[in-house]
Amino acid sequence: MGKESLLAGLSQELPEEFIKEVFSTNTFRIEQIVSKGHCSPEGFWYDQQESEWVLLVKGAGELEFEDGEIIRLGVGDYVNIPAHKKHRVNWTDPEEETVWLAIFYT
User: Fold this and answer.
1) Would 32 be classed as within a structural domain?
2) Residue 48 domain flag
3) CA separation (Å) from 47 to 6, 10, 62, 82, 84?
4) pLDDT tens-place string over residues 27-40
5) Residue 50 and residue 98: Cα distance in Å, rounded?
């Protein structure tokens, strides 16, 4: 059992958003997500079966909700998104990696 880091080995080039499952059980899943200028396609909304708690570890990002609410996140900011609350990634910093820690739970 060795230690790992959410910030180690970040690539300067990210042609696609990077998603890695860090840990999971029957009741929750933890993912590391790395974005660099990536956002959800226009008109796309996540409508998830699970609730999602998201912490922004590095960089900056913006979440948009179907009801029009927009939440800008900086380092250390977090948000809890209930299951089936439609949302999308509206923006991430194009100049540096944005590292998210997402915990999906039922």
Assistant:
1) yes
2) yes
3) 26, 28, 17, 10, 5
4) 999 999 999 999 99
5) 23
